[in-house]
Design a protein that fits this description.
Number of domains: 2
Distance between the termini: 20 Å
Strand content: 15-25%
Shape: elongated
Number of strands: 11
Length: 264
Amino acid sequence: MLNTEKTFYVKNADQLAFCRVCQNKSFDVKKGTICGLTNELATFQKECDTFSLNDEELEKTESKIRQQIYDHVHQYNADPITIDRLNKQLKWLFYPVKNPTYKTAKNTHALTFKDENRKDGDVGFSFGAIVFIILLFILLENGWYILINILALFAAIGYFIYSLLSYFNYTHKGPLKTTEEGLYYREKIYYWGDINDFCYYDFSSSNYKNRKLILGSISNGMIEVNLNDVQINESQIIEILNLNILNHYEKLGKKRGEIIVSGE
């Protein structure tokens, strides 16, 4: 199941990331995953004193999430040649970063990545409209057409001025942020302990951008993050995720094993 930014993200995702791979977990038809020791939903903050890692369950979860992401990315590709070409462009968990920027998870916990200023397109469009209208003004001799062109020219100049002001006074938003708790995307948090895997790809061309990040979470399946308008590069997002997922595994006292999925 793929979750997008508009999809509900479970409120207790931080606890479920631990509970679902704990030997003490149990299940209640009304409450869902609960603690087998208390028969209640988890209430701990950050760490659980009675957490006992179920290695087998964690490894099953790893493989399941990786397979789900792989199948989603390849859902529209059946041709072996296309699949092979696609696989070479996919960047998975622990993909090596040649020139690391942050080096430790702690250094990634207070970052804000702004959105792109797209107002330059409006400036270019309005300027082009002005040039076009002036050319028509020169070529046309009919009085009514000239009057219409003059009115259109004033409108185009007004829009051009408005676009310029909008461009230079643009207030950047921060759609992507990081804290000690997790990754914030458009004001929604995805906890580091819950993010179990990811896949980054960039299929952009000269005509359009197509940069996506697919997060695999223990509590809520897959989440698609659109990076087209975010000022973050491939190395940055990969290093941030690598460091924080590795940091979580170190807290669990578990080494992340190699994952193989069918078709890969």
